[in-house]
Design a protein that fits this description.
The chain has 251 residues and is of the alpha/beta class. It has 12 helices and 8 strands. It has one domain: Alpha-Beta Barrel (TIM Barrel), CATH 3.20.20. The protein has an 8-stranded parallel β-barrel with strand order 1-2-3-4-5-6-7-8, surrounded by 6 helices. Helix 1 runs parallel beside helix 2. The structure holds phosphoenolpyruvate. The site of phosphoenolpyruvate has 13 residues, from strand 8. Phosphoenolpyruvate binds next to strand 8.
Amino acid sequence: MRRKVIAGNWKMHNDLKQSEVLINSLKNLLKDKSINCDVIVCPPFTSLTEASKLISGSIIKLGAQNMHFEDKGAFTGEISSSMLKSTGCEFVILGHSERRTIFKENDIIINAKIKKAIEYGLKPILCIGETLEQREKEVTKDIVKQQVEIGLEGISAEQMKNIIIAYEPVWAIGTGKTATPEQAQEVHQFIRSLIETKYSKSVSESLVIQYGGSVKPENANELLSQKDIDGALVGGACLNADSFYGIIKES
Ligand code: PEP
């Protein structure tokens, strides 16, 4: 039985003070509750160190939103995996659709980042998903297959134990449009079958596959009750402690 994982991607929101307020509110909501899932917050880089101190002793885990694929060097404005580790980060989101579209990251770059993250003991959350145009052309599965195959190229079965995949249809991110539970389940099942073919049944059955795309307390239950949906990567709704907690409660 896979334990569900609910992760909040804060994106470029919340300065230090706002981050402190949000984490403290979430901690208060989670205190003394029996929670059936893992909870991850992914604040901006500037809040990671403070967030790490604030979540200490709570069930909340820490993730970053991106990193560079080199160890160090002349890469102005970039952040390395060892820098993330030094803040107390355990997870890192890689290949988010905003990185792919706005910052032109491709599957090869994302694969290099996945390898570097693993080398430094960070657990990648690999984001994949099709655009609206690709869905309408009925090439969703081809796109997802390519993103999985190239994104995980050179990753061993052992290393897969530390990877989460987040299926996030691009047309559902920040748009208020959610994939129906059936649409999401169909792609999640397909992703699991790809992992079974590439690795083994046991690797595919242990893999956590999150859904992302306008998840909110009102739609979380029907999505999270699908057989192959093992959690959620949440954008907008994680910026409010009550709504993020509302999703966590549905796990
Ligand atoms: C995301 O950014 O990964 C995301 C799913 O955003 P939203 O929940 O706002 O659609």
